[in-house]
């Protein structure tokens, strides 16, 4: 761990901010955001009919989130504190190749998820979590296997975020690292407890806006600093840094090349690991299920491509600042270089910010880190609470669970996981594990379920035995390779040896790809062919229990009206949406391939193979394009949701508060109207439309 942590009672760098500032941001701002979200939740219920006491609203926002808010939420989902801190530290270690490979290891799988998301919307539109899909197709044994894998994914993801964020908060404010670890989830727990997935979408939007504004500020501030002055001067500083400290494994030892052996190894393990973090993270499926059918593919594609600029631009600029100015008296560690533990602890970004912006830079990084970790923690918390409520409580304890039962179990899940993740992160801290270790080894435990899960959604021939055994065998293979190579290269199995790039890369690749032959071979031994239509035979969506129309439906009574409702809904849904969803599926497949080829193959690999060393003009273009892309991402994240339904919902809320629109009478009228016009639900695609009351009543009368 970093020697800046108050672990031995000694700190080599004096925190620029007081502990009071740390507590104000972590506790006070967290509580303020939670209170504001509670108020917003009540206002939305009053003015738009969005009732978070209903499970469909709490977990899936009635499946009507539009493209703009979906894109913003997708950007936020990957806007981990790890992305902000990690992209800077790999830039410090590997040069310009590090932030690029960090970004290239994120965007392609976000875009690929659009294909999974739209396939799920087409084949099983009522699902709440990916685990429901597994259970329906393969039964309880596979369900339990994938549940464990998903929970492991969420646990390590949260630990990765908390370790990096707590280390930075401790370094810049002097706040005790354990206090930061336990206090960070408090505000998240409160607003997620009250607002559910819609609160997550809205806070994602707010947090992402703040983070991107600060990131864009740093992209300008770096070049207005007298020590740098321009992109060209930063180039000269990087050249001088390479002369002082050549980079092992980089062509000519320079920071200014994509020919970096360590960077491309990191790119491989980061890409595979992030593939696992996306596919095995139920929060991605929840957000896909929450989006309207027409919003899934454009939302995930726009969000994924826009996201690329954040680690690329911020990591490149801030790591270059740290490398170029660390020999200046105002650099926090002067006259020495940053230690390995400081770099691995995620302190490159805050130290660079302190160098160019003083205490203001430290405060900005503190706020940015807080916003990033709480935003992504919210998605993780709602994901785990959905598993505990739908996949544990509803499936194994109370089949006939009501809205009230599921909301109560979701609330329990929110509180339990927030506390557990803080405790788990504390345990890792005390055994000497930091941000760098978790960043490198994540893929070993998150990757085994990738292809079995993808095959579950896209390949009808994967057998039940293959789905159960291949991820287990893949995990065993990955762990064996990881620990074996750590022992071989490090001489022992220890925290230090298991956190090196090479063992983690080998272990991650083994975990990721070994389930493919396992699944295919087992499937060939026991072949099966699944009928996608079977997904629609199981009713998953819940209705309002207070409705006299559908009490029997919720309790699960096998009466004729229920069967008729489900059958008619399924036929109607297929008739209205099947062709359109297939079209979106083809678009998603195209963008998945194009994004991977562009970000991972056509752009970086020729530069790696040619051993090209950046010239000044090329470096200037590289940085300027990255910054322009970053500013474009900020505009997309902030203004697209407002233009795509946001202003409409604000107007609706205003009309509701001023008494110009009576929501309760609208809802009563909708209940009668939707009996004769069930298309209302399928044609609605905006959380901001005045048909929100219609949607909620339609869910009661027209279960898809």
UniProtKB/TrEMBL annotation:
Q: Which NCBIfam families match?
A: sss (TIGR00813)
Its protein name is Urea active transporter
Give one Pfam family: SSF
Chain residue ranges for the region called Disordered:
665-704
The compartments listed are: Membrane
Q: How does it sit in the membrane?
A: Multi-pass membrane protein
Q: Where is the composition biased (Basic and acidic residues)?
A: 669-680
CDD domains cross-referenced by the UniProt entry: SLC5sbd_DUR3 (cd11476)
Q: Which Gene3D superfamilies match?
A: Sodium/glucose cotransporter
Residue ranges of the TM segments: 20-44, 64-80, 100-120, 141-169, 175-194, 305-325, 346-371, 377-393, 414-433, 439-459, 466-485, 505-525, 587-606, 618-643
Major localisation: membrane
The residues the entry assigns to the signal sequence are none
Keyword flag RNA-binding: no
What keywords would UniProt list here? Membrane, Transmembrane, Transmembrane helix, Transport
Organism, by scientific name, is: Penicillium cataractarum
